[in-house]
């Protein structure tokens, strides 16, 4: 979902201003006046766009939204209870401590997000930074791109004018989405003293580039520190821009939230050869030496790159991954989008769902993946009002995935962070050193 800039922490609070706790029932279908001029032809009153009422009462009916684990809170989103009986068992950590970097399982992070020693003694990145720009064309892939025109003067754009398909709230109709060109920056960081006599491991993350996300203070400097301390192998770090935009109807949403191998294939064909050429490096083709990372929707892309292309990637790191029904355009073959990685399409509850509604990971043999991911107790909960589809609770998505991964015997670590919002900056700064070490290490089961 939203590409909140981690260099500018005020961006983390986008939803605090865009959807308050008092607007929760609005997000589930209750009418309210438009935030801008209701008389405008482009900014229609929400009453005129009223979707079907949400099913929050009967789990036996389709598109059930479970609100039983929510507590009252003062932030943008309701506070989730980490010990909700719907969630798999997790280990409570003492406040301000991290899970062990050599263990798998589910962990609950305390509410105090202190800056670890790795950041307090960080030195500026000492390696080479190579940046280049990619523009949409007939040879660059994803051509033409997609953009969504936001209606003015309506302040919250897509959330006011989009509607769900009659009878199926999992399908979102987005007016104003149309083809358009895109331009994006790719940054390549080469740490000092990396060996030149063999192909190098690499970490690639979405939401990079000029308008993107650099976790905490400086991901590149952190990689320097962890490599120097022999906690991770020497590696190349690649940040790929998304050209801005967000969610359904945008190029970012199209690329990151599509559940297929398309984005991984695009990276393989159009990004990695340019990285090797412009940085004068050779990248490893061993999937054990390739890691994907992302935040929100780019976190969903990180999962998709590894799940659909395990021949290319085995390691995944994600904060607040959008493993929910964000895929757009709607794909009838996978009607639940990212939700279907871990859970069935919500239109057929308490039944063996016919294909294509079944969950993917539970039905498949265990893949050779290593997965670290996090959600916050105030992560997103139905931010787009017209989609009361039972598949837009970010925390429940993360918990369902943890149950699936644990049941299948995956090598994974799941962190539930207290006092944390969507793509929470303090949580990222606190956990990223441990997360990177875990990602590249070997682990014992608890």
Automatic annotation (TrEMBL):
Pfam families: Esterase. Keywords: Hydrolase, Signal. Gene3D superfamilies: alpha/beta hydrolase. This is Alpha/beta hydrolase-fold protein. It comes from Bombella dulcis. Residues 1-36 form the signal peptide. InterPro entries: AB_hydrolase_fold (IPR029058), Esterase-like (IPR000801), Mycobacterial_A85_antigen (IPR050583). One of its GO terms (molecular function) is hydrolase activity. The keyword Endoplasmic reticulum does not apply.
């Amino acid at each position: 979902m939203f590409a909140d800039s981690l260099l500018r922490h005020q961006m983390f609070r986008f939803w605090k201003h865009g959807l308050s706790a008092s607007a929760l029932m609005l997000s589930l279908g209750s009418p309210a006046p438009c935030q801008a001029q209701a008389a405008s032809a482009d900014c229609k009153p929400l009453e005129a766009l009223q979707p079907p009422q949400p099913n929050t009462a009967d789990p036996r009916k389709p598109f059930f939204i479970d609100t039983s684990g929510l507590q009252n809170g003062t932030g943008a989103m309701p506070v989730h209870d980490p010990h909700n009986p719907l969630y798999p068992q997790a280990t409570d950590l003492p406040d301000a401590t991290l899970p062990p970097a050599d263990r798998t399982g589910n962990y609950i992070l305390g509410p105090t997000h202190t800056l670890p020693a790795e950041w307090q003694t960080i030195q500026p990145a000492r390696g080479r930074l190579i940046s280049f720009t990619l523009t949409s064309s007939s040879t660059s892939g994803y051509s033409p791109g997609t953009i969504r025109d936001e209606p003015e003067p309506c302040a919250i754009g897509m959330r006011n004018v989009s509607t769900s398909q009659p009878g199926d709230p999992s399908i979102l109709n987005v007016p104003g989405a149309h083809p358009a060109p895109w331009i994006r920056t790719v940054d390549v960081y080469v740490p000092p003293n990396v060996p030149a006599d063999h192909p190098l491991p690499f970490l690639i993350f979405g939401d990079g580039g000029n308008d993107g996300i650099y976790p905490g203070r400086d991901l590149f400097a952190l990689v320097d520190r962890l490599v120097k301390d022999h906690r991770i192998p020497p590696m190349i770090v690649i940040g790929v821009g998304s050209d801005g935009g967000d969610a359904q109807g945008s190029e970012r949403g199209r690329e990151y939230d599509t559940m297929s191998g398309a984005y991984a294939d695009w990276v393989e064909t159009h990004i990695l050869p340019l990285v090797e050429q412009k940085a004068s490096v050779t990248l490893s083709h061993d999937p054990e030496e390739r890691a994907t990372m992302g935040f929100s929707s780019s976190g969903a892309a990180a999962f998709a790159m590894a799940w659909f292309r395990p021949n290319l990637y085995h390691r995944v790191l994600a904060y607040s991954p959008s493993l929910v029904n964000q895929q757009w355009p709607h794909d009838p073959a996978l009607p639940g989008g990212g939700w279907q990685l871990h859970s069935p399409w919500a239109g057929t509850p308490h039944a063996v769902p016919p294909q294509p509604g079944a969950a993917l990971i539970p039905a498949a043999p265990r893949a050779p993946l290593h997965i670290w991911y996090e959600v916050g107790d105030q992560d997103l909960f139905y931010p787009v009002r017209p989609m009361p589809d039972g598949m837009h609770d970010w925390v429940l998505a993360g918990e369902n995935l943890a149950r699936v991964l644990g049941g299948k015997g995956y090598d994974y670590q799941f962190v539930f962070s207290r006092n944390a919002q969507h793509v929470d900056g303090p949580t990222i700064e606190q956990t990223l050193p441990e997360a990177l070490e875990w990602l590249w290490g070997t682990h014992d089961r608890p």
